Write the structure tokens for this entry.
Amino acid sequence: MKKYYQLLQEKTDISIYKQWLKKISDINIRRSSKFNILAIYGALKCMDNIHFSQKLGIYLLTRYGPISNVVNVLDKHQAKQKITPFDFLNINSNNAAFYVARALNATGKNMVLTTTNNSLADGIKLAQLDMTLNIIDDALVGLVDESIDGILTETSLDTSQWVYFSNKYAHCQADQIIS
Amino acid sequence: MTTDVFITGSALACSLGNSSTQILTNLKYWDSENYENLVQEACLNNTLYHIHHSAQSPTKKYYQVLANVVNKAIKKAGLTYKMQEELTIFIGSTSMKIASDEEQLTHLGNGIIGQFVADITHSKNHFYLISTACTSSANAFDYAAKMIKNQQIKRALVIGIEILNKSTKMGFESLLLLSEKNIYRPFDETSDGIVLGEACSALILDTQRNSSDDFAYLGSANVCDNYSETTSNPDGISIAECLNKALQDANLSIEQIDLIKAHATGSLNNNLAEAKGLDLFMQNHPIPICALKPFIGHTLGACGTNEITLLLLCIKNGFVPSVRGFNHHNELTFTPLQNKIKTHGKANILFNYIGFSGNNTAIILGKK
């Protein structure tokens, strides 16, 4: 493992994260979801000052995905309103990994997986396999979720946790994290 | 150390039917003369290819279709209770359970789908849920096969599922990607877009053949480009790169590929990008190209396993269906399969898949 970054924050408005992201990147995130912005921000913070291979694999894990956007679309159905292209694009969770890859100019894999236990383990397992098979050189594994406060009865924090692995140290360090 | 990987069981529920017999029977009627009528019939008023199912609610339909398909694949593979316990589960889907959420949002997160499958299969192993748009179940298959090949897991159940929901349909409508004429015309110059489909399939991957006609996994690859959220890079380079990497992974030469199953969405941009990618890949080695979406619609994240299941079923029954809806395209350097071809149950097939956000996946399966 080369670097770890963690954002854990009480439910915060998307505008704040947009401001934070603008300070570190000029990527166009106009009308993008909070989920996407959390993902890009955390990933860029993790990769700050790291020289990595373009064959970087991105593995994004999420429990709820872009849940506030999903709820917004469900509400629009209830109200018999049309959904817009941005409504639709923002409920596709794989957009987040795409934007992370674009922000980092990475052309290795980008994968989005559902986690049930807020763990990076599934992503690390796939990254480890891809690195072992020389499909990617480096890996960036993240857990991204927006707070679900106010949706049903559960609560959680805005989360963007990322771990970067280089091909040199991947195997032993990944094993340590999984265990 | 690596081991062989075989597809020992499969099942598919789609607009053509919910069993292999129904699907094969209906496919026989899909000749080019009555294609347009059959599409209208298959799509009914929903403007998409739909599964024939009598469930009273979207949630019941979702889980009943899923359970039926999984149980059929397990039965086909002849898995004992003990063997089922050893299954690692891989599920690929674009919309996951949004069809159920639209009815009532009772449970946040999609992990419940994996748990449902683990419960009905008695699996004591892990489940992976992958969402990479239209390559979701292809990537699920890719990882399952690679994990077995590299002896990380013993056997796998790979599922693709996409069930009718308003969000997907209205979303594609909003992007102006759906066919107004509601006719699939892959690679044709009159193609005016996608016709969505709902379907669910399941494949059992194992280290031993269950039957002499089981196909083997030979290789696969995934390549991502950052060109666009919604379209492939029109230069086709990343698509060709993905196909070449799969060929390399399978340790095959291009002359050893008998058939390409194109992604063939029907959308203008992806038709052209894929055509360029296929052209770059084939160069001076023309290979027959088939496309299956005219029969079952674009089943999005589930199309990976759906189209593997459908095509292998056809080949095992002695034929590859021709590409319905294609007539002509001036810019195309190849002609998609115009007539049904006979097989003897044997072929090396290259499956090509392309997803939103530049996610390309290619899988090679074979039996010689």
